């Protein structure tokens, strides 16, 4: 047969070679996984779970129904297509009007604690309430309301009244309430509850239309004084707003300042009313009618309430009484507001004061015991970083005040994303991870702190929450082997290993500030008691980790073969015996091999001799124990009676052979094999013979025969 000529220029496809190598690698990994699966069926199969068997198909519907469904789908699609607006060369999609209505439509019930729309509505009502509180006294006392601008004041009053009516008729009857621990959302029950409350009657009085008296007494703002009775809505808005603000103390300071300004505003209005009553400019004490009337009166109110002094002396009895009441009211109001402001600021800085107190106590303790300055500086750095990073020294103190469910909810939101990325816990029960989140302890390490040292006993595992740590090694222990970042885990071998494998294998140092989660071995065992499947999975992963740990360090990367050679496995390593033989040159390698063989044969012979000696010794001990048992069986009741009455001389006869030079192991054999004499002289004696068997303290010796001689006691 003719051979085909080989091509002179052979071209190799690198992409095809890479694909073939990848396929071979995956097939080897798959075979390895299946081998481990056969050895230990705990690990889950790498294959995906089979899909559910397809259910029986229902019979197709009649064609009429199909046509109806198609028509409905077309009808549903058409409205969406109609919401496009063509403008010049562009086409804009316009949302349907129904969506706007659904968004603006009020729900059947309103949760006053979580619904932000309700808080926004309360803010609108509060603005209307503040308008009435500030401007009704101002318009009643000062001549700012004139016939030329009455229409503007009247328009704003109507807008405020509309807000009051909407709150009374629409919003308040929809607010949920608690009854016996249950949240009531029934529309009728909510309306009935609101109508039976004091807030409802105050809201009704605040919207009564006393403005009809304008037709009889003129346009007087005093007829709107009932609008200031809607104070419950104002205080409810303050509570709801503080609950949703991040820094509520800022709003408390602003609100307290507003209280002070409002009291000064009322005092200024009263001073102008008193001046008008006495006559503007009639005395030195009253307002003289010059300048801006409101600012001059407000200035006088500030100096009076704060008791600054330097004011003109009152002349008439009315002025004296008015000034005395003003001074008393000023002392009471000013002291109350200052105390409230102090409480607000104190509550805002309570955490900072606690931090300063703890740090001062620690510094005082270190100074008392003369702690080195370097250690003191590190302690101060830890305090400052911990407080700046998390706003508290110990997070557990805050969580302990909450129920367990809330603690779990917060822990899941804060830490679950970090723990879920850990490869060690992948595949474990989710509830087990939740339980573990509640047991994690957060600790901050400073730059250069040793998290763990090589050789020490490991009782905990570390999960990096924030920062970096470095694993050190090398001859001097300063070489950085690897840098671990957020989400990495180390120390799991010491936590999961059985006895003997719980020592640290490397030094770990914090590189910069590092915040770590710590999970100790005792806590993990307490959790795994309730999750046996997760425990088996973790133990299997621990075996794999220990196996990888025992492997030698990887050498330089071996260049992979190219072409078809990559389909075959790598050449196996040469056995150590052949390495030893081929290590020398010429006869030296063979001589080394023969020497190793002689040493091995010598060790085998010694082991056989040792085993034979142990076997013979055990046989001898077993024989002695059997002889003792046979002797006790041959003794009868009559023999015991003869031995009991035996004279002393006959008792001493069998004892004489003890002095012979026989070995100790053979001394008891004649006595054990000896038979009682056929003729015994029966005589009386004062002594009695007691024979007993007791187990030997050594397991291999059997039982021990005891013979005791005791004198008879006289009765």
Automatic annotation (TrEMBL):
What are the annotated GO cellular component locations?
Answer: intracellular cyclic nucleotide activated cation channel complex; photoreceptor outer segment; plasma membrane
Q: Where is the Cyclic nucleotide-binding domain?
A: 424-528
Q: Which SMART domains match?
A: cNMP
Topological relation to the membrane, as annotated: Multi-pass membrane protein
User: Which molecular-function annotations from GO does this UniProt entry contain?
Assistant: cGMP binding; intracellularly cAMP-activated cation channel activity; intracellularly cGMP-activated cation channel activity; protein-containing complex binding
In which compartments does the protein localize? Membrane
**Entry's Gene3D superfamilies?**
1.10.287.70, Helix hairpin bin, Jelly Rolls
Q: Which keywords are on file for this protein?
A: cGMP, cGMP-binding, Ion channel, Ion transport, Ligand-gated ion channel, Membrane, Nucleotide-binding, Sensory transduction, Transmembrane, Transmembrane helix, Transport, Vision
The family database entries (InterPro entries) matched by this protein are listed as: CNG_cation_channel, cNMP-bd_CS, cNMP-bd_dom, cNMP-bd_dom_sf, Ion_trans_dom, RmlC-like_jellyroll
**Bias type Low complexity, positions:** 655-665
Residue ranges with Basic and acidic residues bias: 63-76, 698-715
Q: Which residues cross the membrane?
A: 118-138, 150-171, 200-219, 249-273, 317-338
Q: What biological-process GO terms show up in the record?
A: visual perception
Superkingdom per UniProt: Eukaryota
Q: Which reaction does it catalyse?
A: K(+)(in) = K(+)(out); Na(+)(in) = Na(+)(out)
Where does the signal peptide begin and end?
A: none
Region annotation (Disordered) ranges: 35-76, 601-621, 642-715
Q: Which SUPFAM superfamilies match?
A: cAMP-binding domain-like, Voltage-gated potassium channels
Q: Report the protein name in the record.
A: CNGB3 protein
According to its UniProt entry, this protein's organism is: Aramus guarauna
